[in-house]
Request: fold
Amino acid sequence: MGIDLNVRNFSTDSDGLVIENPKNVKKAEKRLAKQQQKLSRKKKGSHNRRKQKVIVAKVHEKIENRRNDFLHKISRYYVNNYDLVALEDLNITKLVQISGRGLTKSILDASWGKFVKCVTYKAENAGKFAVKVSPKGTTQDCCICGEKVAKDLSVRMHLCPYCGSIMPRDYNAAQNIKLKGLEKVGWGTPEPTVLNTENLNTLAEIRTSILSLSEQVPVNESRISQL
Reply:
């Protein structure tokens, strides 16, 4: 299994499963900003300020818990269903530095690094393989013929002029990641398949329906003390 992590959705895998980004921070931004604004107006050391700290901490904690719950469920799904999970060896710090403000927030909210760690230790405990491969060429190279097909971020479809293959760019990347992963563990390089795009949304809708998010919010006291 190859998994392409991206900002348009959370991920696309080599079986054609698209998982939407829950965008936990973005959904809670207005409420968080409102509660933080209230906190800034409270007198330091007052009882009302201490109460407001708890409210802000609960918002932060809810975001973090929902994110962690999502990441653990997705990583568990892949480790339970596949013997090999291949992911790009992304330099998250560098990506954040070179990205615009909007993309930076999306990257940090997605928590790709934490997801990779979740997959890695779950796979190790289950006696399976989780490998990181070089991201070089995964988006630009055609997974069918191997030719480079240059495209910027605005181009969402992979249209190969050499072999005629047509597929979503993220699916093409996931196939390349899978091939690199198979090569890395020495399992050979089977021919990738072109995705039937008519089934893409159906697969995503059915397969992600099990990923309900927890609403429980235990308040972390250490977070309150930092506010």
Notes: The helical segments are 24-41, 47-81, 92-98, 101-110, 112-126, 169-185, 200-207, 221-226.
